[in-house]
């Protein structure tokens, strides 16, 4: 029997994949902002009015879903301005630079990496620092640097490989959605290997992530 839904991976970087449930949910995350001009008939949509005919006055503070913020953002017309969520501000960037592993990403933002990448669509002087925080954190008292994602990735995969047939709820509680997906991949790989080692599987197959990556590379070459 075929599956009713085949999981679709999220987009990469500043692009979204609207066939991905993760990206659809991420696009509902809200950004703090301000109306730089009056917004006709948007009060109800923004949760600031009781009628679809009401407008939002210029200067109003807003909580804007990502999908709507991207639609309204226009550097020339200045319809809205967008502020950084606190986890992407300098204070939290300092925490990441000290030790990326101490942060409870799921509590602060379940789509930390994807949402942070989407913030780069908006003109903000701190964009270079945001991008660096997502990808790289300088380790204090060291001349070397470690990528934030890589530093956390190592611990995630170590945990997934050392938690066979155990309750993993505490291990994944602090991970964002991307990291949780990677943890599940690690767990599945370990389970498949254990089955193969016990003679319960005929062969080890490549991960779907590897297969999809290979297909993407072939498409790029053909293009």
TrEMBL record:
The keyword Nucleus applies. Residues 89-196 form the GINS subunit domain. GO terms for cellular component: GINS complex. Residues 19-72 form the DNA replication complex GINS protein PSF3 N-terminal domain. Its main location: nucleus. Gene3D superfamilies: 1.20.58.2050. The keyword Nucleus applies. Keywords: DNA replication, Nucleus. It holds the Pfam family Sld5. Component of the GINS complex. The GINS complex plays an essential role in the initiation of DNA replication. Required for correct functioning of the GINS complex, a complex that plays an essential role in the initiation of DNA replication, and progression of DNA replication forks. GINS complex is a core component of CDC45-MCM-GINS (CMG) helicase, the molecular machine that unwinds template DNA during replication, and around which the replisome is built. Belongs to the GINS3/PSF3 family. This is DNA replication complex GINS protein PSF3. It comes from Loxia curvirostra (Red crossbill).
